[in-house]
Amino acid sequence: MTTLGVRPAVSLWIGGAMVAALSACDPQPATAPTAAPSPAPASTAASPSPSTIASAAPSPVGEVPKPDQAFLLQAVDRVEDPVLTVTASGRIGTYPGGADTGEREQFVLAPLSPGATTYLLKTARLRTGGEPLCISVDGAVPHAAACDAADRDQKVTLVASPGMEGARGADFELVIGDRNVEVDAAGKVSLRERVGPAQTAFRFVLAGPGGQ
To answer: Which N-terminal residues, if any, form the signal peptide (predicted)?
Structure first.
């Protein structure tokens, strides 16, 4: 009787020990540590400095006709290739470049001093009292007048037109005094204060010796 009472207790002890051993051998899944979010990369784009935004000052035209060389002033990229002309009223207008041009469309450049890049724009053959006329400004209207080298409204500057190259030489902007000479799509000539590049570029079309 005593033996029968002990055996169940031993069996239970052995069974419990086996369960404990098996539990110790069963690996439990490890919990992965949560990674901290990485900071966003800092932007490497640099803001443009004012010195890179500012455009370079325009430069004068490198080659111009000699003082004894007559030429036409043709507006670039306009219908009928208009050239500047002195109208019967003395104003500066345009004339179709493909038509027969004459003395009213021919001009010469006279430097204000040897080697200067500022000029008087004179009529090459048109005369009044035997004297050439100069392109001038009268109330924001370009017209022909008696030449006066001391008149700032007769001082002409040629400014290179960036990025444009004509078949007969470099294109340029025509500035009289402090105004750009503009030619609109209809061929009308006007003057605008030079606060930036002109909307009209010109080119020289050579027309033989001047002053004849």
So the answer is: 1-32
Tokens 């069974």 locate to 15
- Name the 3-class secondary structure at 124: strand
Amino acid at 56: A
Residue 106 to residue 27: CA distance in whole angstroms? 104
Which structure tokens are listed for 160? 């290179």
Let me know if residue 87 belongs to a domain.
yes
118-128 and 155-166 strand pairing: antiparallel
Report DSSP state, residue 80.
T
Spell out the residues 6+ positions from residue 105 whose beta carbon is closer than 8 angstroms to its own: 72, 83, 84, 85, 95, 207
The torsion angles phi and psi of 33, rounded to 5 degrees, stand at -70, 145
**Which residues of the chain are under the pLDDT cut of 50?**
1-33, 37, 39-59, 164, 166-169
Whichever domain contains 160, its CATH number is 2.80.10.50
Is the pTM higher than 0.90? The answer reads: no
With left for phi above 0 and alpha for psi between -120 and 50, is residue 40 left, alpha or beta?
beta
Report the DSSP beta bridge partners of residue 206. Answer: 71
End-to-end CA distance of the chain: 155
How far is CA 164 from each of CA 80, 83, 121, 136, rounded to the nearest angstrom?
19, 18, 23, 27
